[in-house]
Amino acid sequence: MAALATPPNGERDSLKANAHLAAQPFIETIPSPDCAVCGGGTWREVGKGQDYEYATCSNVWTFRACQQCGHVQMDPLPAPETLGVIYPSNYYSYQMEKSIHPLARWAKRKLDRAKFRWILGGLRAPVGSYLDVGCGDGRYLEMMIDQGVDRERAQGVELDAHAVHVARAKNLNVTQTRIEDARGLEPGSFDLITMFHVIEHVARPDEVVARLQSLLRVGGLLALETPNFDCADARWSGERFWGAYHTPRHWHLFTAASLARLLRSHGFTIERQRFQTGHAFLLWTLHHWLKYGKEHSRLAKWCHPLRNVPLLALATAFDMLRIMFGRKTSAVLLVARRDS
To answer: Is the pTM here over 0.85, yes or no?
Structure first.
């Protein structure tokens, strides 16, 4: 059972009160004192919010930007024993088939195939071995197997027991573990590693990147996708309601520059970068602003990205137009090559 704590004086009242959020438990936290990118220790506050999506706790969470490199991280972080609270059983990525409308899943598969064509376009030889970190039910493993990777050499790691069960039922090679703790992965053995919207969830992204570097062969590629803090969306939404804050589950928010700095410091050369659609983040921003900022709960329901497929399609088209015209969106994808 997750540890509970007593909130500091005024903590629950530091944002506009919401009865449902205020009624939730106040959970234990741990400090996150040093910048995970450059090690700096001086900060400025850039955001503050609560669990506007799942209402798992009443804590008010703070995001701070490093004064030296601009990297944004949450401080304090939820304590390890509270992970079962902030990632409830109905968390959307644990039940992709149930959570996401079939039409939206079809569109996502199309976008994913385009993403992989772009990533694979940077390879100098066919992929012989592949690792997906945070692989869920293994949909990317299946994609790479279809591209010719041997089933045994397409591997995944995933924390959620149900997702692992689904992947194994499809005869996929998936281990239930954190990448930091994974055993049986041979150093220098992978041609390609992907990590899509995972690195923002980990406590020490620097340690994760170091582990990924050790698993890649020299010349192998790492593809990392994560929210991008350096975008108009984050600025429009002020300090509370940006959908990519995803409080309290996104602990680190990168820019293209800060992510590239982290990768270079661990022996990578940046090959390519591009901005990705952040359609769900756009709708969550509207949802949170309407529900918690303006108290229009009924109107906010229309902006729920898992329930309004036409609006989700419109947000996707908007981001695709921004990308076409060279604008930054709320998600960035970097491909980096391991140096010799």
So the answer is: yes
